[in-house]
Amino acid sequence: MQELETFKLIERISAILRSEERKKYAAIGLQPVHGQVLDYLAKCNHYSNTHAAVAEYLGLTKGTVSQTIQILERRHYLEKTTDAVDGRVVHLTLTETGYALLEDLKPLDVFKHAETQLSEREFETIGQALRATLSVLQKVNNSKSFGLCRSCRHFAVEANHYHCGLTEQPLARGDTEKICRDHQPFSDPHHEE
């Protein structure tokens, strides 16, 4: 059961980071896949900078990679060169503009901020570390926690039934095990006890 909780925490952290990434790329008219291609090409060697290698590494179709590379080439983030030995092979290399874009977009500011806040703390389990990371990322990103109802500051057990103090409504037992968009963690300093 602990593995499932760890997976859910990682999944939620990833969702926040993907959301931030999409915002950054949308601001410049690109998609995260464009950054993934540039990031791969910045790290790979001369034998691995081809359309096929990009598709294989990122798990994308050849069509998606081809369209992505066309966009990146039109925007002067990468350039194509034909292999000197095998004219059928096309190599993809980043331009200075491509490297500059990667520098501007990575690492995500929200993650750097969370890392700074958590770097001095020690955790007994990976679950504690992930929960703390998620909490900081949510605060930095001004996102809702979407936590389990039963872990919310408004959750209460009254006269043998479950109750939401925010809505002043009774809760079905099944709902207490589900996530809520109005969830407020007990440690949330922005809300009064």
TrEMBL record:
Residues 3-135 form the HTH marR-type domain. Gene3D superfamilies: Winged helix-like DNA-binding domain superfamily/Winged helix DNA-binding domain (1.10.10.10). InterPro entries: HTH_MarR-typ, MarR/SlyA-like, WH-like_DNA-bd_sf, WH_DNA-bd_sf. GO terms for molecular function: DNA-binding transcription factor activity. Its main location: cytoplasm. It is found in: Cytoplasm. GO terms for biological process: response to stress. PROSITE patterns: HTH_MARR_2. One of its GO terms (cellular component) is cytoplasm. This is MarR family transcriptional regulator. It comes from Methylomonas koyamae. The lineage of its organism: Bacteria, Pseudomonadati, Pseudomonadota, Gammaproteobacteria, Methylococcales.
